[in-house]
Design goal:
single chain, alpha/beta, Glutaconate Coenzyme A-transferase, 9-stranded mixed beta sheet, 3-stranded antiparallel beta sheet, 10 helices, about 25% strand, CoA-transferase activity, transferase, CoA-transferase, CoA_trans_fam_I, NagB/RpiA_transferase-like
Amino acid sequence: MSRALADVVAEHVRPGRRVYLGNFGAQLFAVGHEMIRQRIRDVDVVIASGGLLMDQLLGAGVLRSATYGHCWSPVGPAPAWNFRRAAQDGDTRVALHELSLGLLTAALTAGAWRVPFMPVPDLPGTGYLDEDWSRGRLSSVDSAFGPARVVRAERPDVAFVHVDLADADGNGVIRGPLGEVLVAAQAARRTVLVAEQVTDAETVRAAGISIPGLLVDAVVESPGAVHPDGAVGRYPRDVEAYQRYARRSATADGFRRWLAEEVL
Protein backbone atom coordinates (compact mmCIF):
# COMPACT_ATOMS: atom_id res chain seq x y z
CA MET A 1 0.00 0.00 0.00
CA SER A 2 2.97 2.36 0.51
CA ARG A 3 3.44 4.70 -2.45
CA ALA A 4 5.75 7.48 -3.59
CA LEU A 5 4.81 10.92 -2.26
CA ALA A 6 5.14 12.59 -5.67
CA ASP A 7 2.68 10.11 -7.21
CA VAL A 8 0.13 10.52 -4.43
CA VAL A 9 0.28 14.32 -4.57
CA ALA A 10 -0.10 14.26 -8.36
CA GLU A 11 -3.17 12.02 -8.03
CA HIS A 12 -4.97 13.77 -5.20
CA VAL A 13 -3.96 17.45 -5.36
CA ARG A 14 -5.34 19.29 -8.36
CA PRO A 15 -6.63 22.81 -9.06
CA GLY A 16 -9.91 23.48 -7.30
CA ARG A 17 -9.58 20.69 -4.74
CA ARG A 18 -9.82 21.16 -0.99
CA VAL A 19 -6.75 19.76 0.71
CA TYR A 20 -6.33 19.31 4.47
CA LEU A 21 -2.69 19.45 5.56
CA GLY A 22 -2.05 18.02 9.01
CA ASN A 23 -1.14 17.95 11.72
CA PHE A 24 -1.49 20.45 14.51
CA GLY A 25 2.01 20.58 15.95
CA ALA A 26 3.63 18.68 13.06
CA GLN A 27 3.32 20.46 9.73
CA LEU A 28 3.69 18.34 6.61
CA PHE A 29 6.36 20.33 4.79
CA ALA A 30 7.14 17.32 2.57
CA VAL A 31 3.63 17.43 1.09
CA GLY A 32 3.55 21.20 0.75
CA HIS A 33 6.94 21.30 -0.92
CA GLU A 34 5.90 18.57 -3.35
CA MET A 35 2.85 20.65 -4.27
CA ILE A 36 5.20 23.57 -4.96
CA ARG A 37 7.59 21.44 -7.04
CA GLN A 38 4.71 20.15 -9.16
CA ARG A 39 3.60 23.77 -9.66
CA ILE A 40 0.03 23.00 -8.68
CA ARG A 41 -2.20 26.08 -8.56
CA ASP A 42 -5.63 27.14 -7.26
CA VAL A 43 -5.69 24.77 -4.28
CA ASP A 44 -8.08 25.39 -1.37
CA VAL A 45 -6.01 24.41 1.64
CA VAL A 46 -7.40 23.61 5.10
CA ILE A 47 -4.73 23.85 7.78
CA ALA A 48 -5.22 24.31 11.50
CA SER A 49 -1.74 25.55 12.33
CA GLY A 50 -0.87 27.53 9.21
CA GLY A 51 2.57 28.62 10.27
CA LEU A 52 5.43 28.83 7.80
CA LEU A 53 4.10 26.02 5.62
CA MET A 54 1.05 28.11 4.74
CA ASP A 55 3.35 31.11 4.31
CA GLN A 56 5.42 29.19 1.76
CA LEU A 57 2.38 27.90 -0.14
CA LEU A 58 1.03 31.44 -0.24
CA GLY A 59 4.29 32.89 -1.52
CA ALA A 60 4.74 30.14 -4.11
CA GLY A 61 1.34 30.80 -5.70
CA VAL A 62 -0.20 27.43 -4.85
CA LEU A 63 -3.29 28.70 -3.05
CA ARG A 64 -6.70 29.86 -4.22
CA SER A 65 -7.97 29.97 -0.65
CA ALA A 66 -6.88 29.03 2.85
CA THR A 67 -9.05 28.06 5.81
CA TYR A 68 -6.79 28.21 8.83
CA GLY A 69 -6.46 28.77 12.56
CA HIS A 70 -3.38 30.97 12.46
CA CYS A 71 -0.39 31.84 10.29
CA TRP A 72 2.73 32.85 12.17
CA SER A 73 6.35 31.97 12.70
CA PRO A 74 6.76 29.62 15.68
CA VAL A 75 10.19 31.06 16.41
CA GLY A 76 9.31 34.77 16.44
CA PRO A 77 9.62 37.66 16.58
CA ALA A 78 9.98 37.29 12.80
CA PRO A 79 6.55 37.17 11.12
CA ALA A 80 5.31 34.94 8.35
CA TRP A 81 6.47 37.42 5.73
CA ASN A 82 4.40 36.36 2.70
CA PHE A 83 1.24 36.37 4.79
CA ARG A 84 2.14 39.78 6.21
CA ARG A 85 2.88 41.25 2.78
CA ALA A 86 -0.43 39.99 1.41
CA ALA A 87 -2.32 41.50 4.35
CA GLN A 88 -0.53 44.85 4.26
CA ASP A 89 -0.78 45.18 0.48
CA GLY A 90 -4.48 44.32 0.45
CA ASP A 91 -3.79 41.39 -1.87
CA THR A 92 -7.12 39.62 -2.48
CA ARG A 93 -5.92 36.95 -4.92
CA VAL A 94 -6.07 34.34 -2.15
CA ALA A 95 -9.29 34.14 -0.12
CA LEU A 96 -8.39 33.88 3.56
CA HIS A 97 -10.92 32.26 5.91
CA GLU A 98 -9.70 32.59 9.49
CA LEU A 99 -11.28 30.36 12.12
CA SER A 100 -10.15 29.66 15.65
CA LEU A 101 -8.78 26.18 16.22
CA GLY A 102 -12.01 25.34 18.04
CA LEU A 103 -14.16 26.61 15.17
CA LEU A 104 -12.15 24.70 12.60
CA THR A 105 -12.39 21.50 14.63
CA ALA A 106 -16.16 22.02 14.90
CA ALA A 107 -16.38 22.52 11.12
CA LEU A 108 -14.43 19.31 10.49
CA THR A 109 -16.58 17.47 13.04
CA ALA A 110 -19.68 18.54 11.13
CA GLY A 111 -18.06 17.21 7.97
CA ALA A 112 -17.23 13.93 9.70
CA TRP A 113 -20.83 13.60 10.87
CA ARG A 114 -22.16 14.52 7.40
CA VAL A 115 -24.25 17.38 8.73
CA PRO A 116 -24.27 20.87 7.17
CA PHE A 117 -23.10 22.81 10.21
CA MET A 118 -22.12 22.62 13.87
CA PRO A 119 -23.30 24.85 16.76
CA VAL A 120 -20.51 26.96 18.26
CA PRO A 121 -20.23 29.63 20.99
CA ASP A 122 -21.29 33.20 20.29
CA LEU A 123 -17.64 34.38 20.23
CA PRO A 124 -18.11 37.69 22.07
CA GLY A 125 -15.18 40.07 22.02
CA THR A 126 -13.71 38.72 18.78
CA GLY A 127 -13.70 39.97 15.20
CA TYR A 128 -15.14 36.77 13.79
CA LEU A 129 -18.60 38.28 13.54
CA ASP A 130 -18.14 42.06 13.41
CA GLU A 131 -15.31 41.91 10.87
CA ASP A 132 -16.23 38.54 9.30
CA TRP A 133 -12.76 37.06 9.57
CA SER A 134 -14.18 33.71 8.44
CA ARG A 135 -15.59 35.25 5.24
CA GLY A 136 -18.99 33.59 5.35
CA ARG A 137 -18.20 30.44 7.33
CA LEU A 138 -20.27 31.53 10.34
CA SER A 139 -24.02 32.06 10.44
CA SER A 140 -27.07 31.87 12.73
CA VAL A 141 -30.01 29.47 12.64
CA ASP A 142 -33.30 29.12 14.50
CA SER A 143 -34.10 25.78 16.09
CA ALA A 144 -36.67 24.18 18.37
CA PHE A 145 -34.35 25.04 21.27
CA GLY A 146 -33.69 28.63 20.29
CA PRO A 147 -31.29 30.51 18.02
CA ALA A 148 -27.75 29.22 17.59
CA ARG A 149 -24.49 30.37 16.10
CA VAL A 150 -23.15 27.78 13.65
CA VAL A 151 -20.07 27.10 11.54
CA ARG A 152 -20.35 25.56 8.09
CA ALA A 153 -19.18 21.96 7.69
CA GLU A 154 -15.73 21.33 6.24
CA ARG A 155 -15.25 18.32 3.95
CA PRO A 156 -11.83 18.23 2.30
CA ASP A 157 -11.40 16.27 -0.89
CA VAL A 158 -8.25 14.77 0.60
CA ALA A 159 -6.58 14.84 4.01
CA PHE A 160 -2.84 14.36 4.41
CA VAL A 161 -2.17 13.12 7.95
CA HIS A 162 1.26 12.74 9.52
CA VAL A 163 1.82 9.57 11.56
CA ASP A 164 4.84 8.12 13.28
CA LEU A 165 4.11 4.52 12.28
CA ALA A 166 1.84 2.92 9.69
CA ASP A 167 1.28 -0.60 8.44
CA ALA A 168 0.41 -1.87 4.97
CA ASP A 169 -3.32 -1.81 5.81
CA GLY A 170 -3.27 1.93 6.56
CA ASN A 171 -3.46 1.80 10.34
CA GLY A 172 -1.48 4.71 11.77
CA VAL A 173 0.08 5.72 15.08
CA ILE A 174 0.37 9.38 16.12
CA ARG A 175 2.73 10.04 19.00
CA GLY A 176 2.21 13.79 19.15
CA PRO A 177 -0.99 15.74 19.87
CA LEU A 178 -4.03 14.54 17.95
CA GLY A 179 -5.65 17.96 17.72
CA GLU A 180 -8.23 17.97 14.94
CA VAL A 181 -6.56 15.29 12.84
CA LEU A 182 -8.91 12.35 13.52
CA VAL A 183 -12.06 14.30 12.60
CA ALA A 184 -10.21 15.63 9.54
CA ALA A 185 -9.57 12.06 8.40
CA GLN A 186 -13.22 11.21 9.05
CA ALA A 187 -14.45 14.32 7.23
CA ALA A 188 -12.28 13.96 4.13
CA ARG A 189 -13.36 12.07 1.04
CA ARG A 190 -9.87 10.56 0.80
CA THR A 191 -7.14 10.23 3.44
CA VAL A 192 -3.42 9.75 2.91
CA LEU A 193 -1.10 8.77 5.77
CA VAL A 194 2.40 10.22 5.55
CA ALA A 195 4.45 8.00 7.84
CA GLU A 196 7.89 8.39 9.33
CA GLN A 197 8.11 4.59 9.13
CA VAL A 198 6.03 1.82 7.56
CA THR A 199 6.29 -1.31 9.66
CA ASP A 200 4.46 -4.55 10.44
CA ALA A 201 0.91 -4.72 11.77
CA GLU A 202 1.95 -6.18 15.13
CA THR A 203 4.22 -3.22 15.91
CA VAL A 204 1.49 -0.75 14.97
CA ARG A 205 -1.14 -2.50 17.10
CA ALA A 206 1.24 -2.65 20.07
CA ALA A 207 1.91 1.10 19.80
CA GLY A 208 -1.81 1.92 19.77
CA ILE A 209 -3.69 2.75 16.58
CA SER A 210 -4.70 6.42 16.23
CA ILE A 211 -6.07 6.36 12.67
CA PRO A 212 -7.77 3.11 11.56
CA GLY A 213 -7.04 1.75 8.13
CA LEU A 214 -10.72 1.81 7.14
CA LEU A 215 -10.37 5.61 6.80
CA VAL A 216 -7.19 5.48 4.72
CA ASP A 217 -6.77 5.37 0.95
CA ALA A 218 -2.98 5.52 0.63
CA VAL A 219 0.18 5.30 2.74
CA VAL A 220 3.43 7.12 2.01
CA GLU A 221 6.68 6.40 3.84
CA SER A 222 8.51 9.71 4.15
CA PRO A 223 11.10 9.96 6.95
CA GLY A 224 11.53 13.58 8.01
CA ALA A 225 8.19 14.55 6.47
CA VAL A 226 7.56 17.45 8.86
CA HIS A 227 11.12 18.85 8.96
CA PRO A 228 11.99 21.63 9.82
CA ASP A 229 9.11 21.11 12.25
CA GLY A 230 9.65 18.37 14.83
CA ALA A 231 8.21 14.88 15.19
CA VAL A 232 7.65 13.54 18.70
CA GLY A 233 10.19 10.84 19.51
CA ARG A 234 11.95 11.23 16.14
CA TYR A 235 13.62 14.62 15.68
CA PRO A 236 13.35 18.10 17.20
CA ARG A 237 12.20 21.27 15.52
CA ASP A 238 15.03 22.79 13.47
CA VAL A 239 15.02 26.29 14.93
CA GLU A 240 17.99 27.38 12.83
CA ALA A 241 16.17 26.45 9.61
CA TYR A 242 13.18 28.52 10.72
CA GLN A 243 15.46 31.45 11.51
CA ARG A 244 17.17 31.23 8.11
CA TYR A 245 13.79 31.19 6.39
CA ALA A 246 12.65 34.21 8.39
CA ARG A 247 15.73 36.18 7.38
CA ARG A 248 15.62 35.26 3.71
CA SER A 249 11.86 35.63 3.20
CA ALA A 250 11.80 39.16 4.65
CA THR A 251 11.63 40.43 1.04
CA ALA A 252 9.74 38.96 -1.90
CA ASP A 253 12.97 38.58 -3.89
CA GLY A 254 14.63 36.89 -0.94
CA PHE A 255 11.76 34.43 -0.67
CA ARG A 256 11.98 33.58 -4.37
CA ARG A 257 15.70 32.88 -4.05
CA TRP A 258 15.11 30.73 -0.95
CA LEU A 259 12.39 28.79 -2.80
CA ALA A 260 14.63 28.14 -5.81
CA GLU A 261 17.50 26.92 -3.64
CA GLU A 262 15.67 24.97 -0.94
CA VAL A 263 12.50 23.55 -2.55
CA LEU A 264 12.51 23.58 -6.36
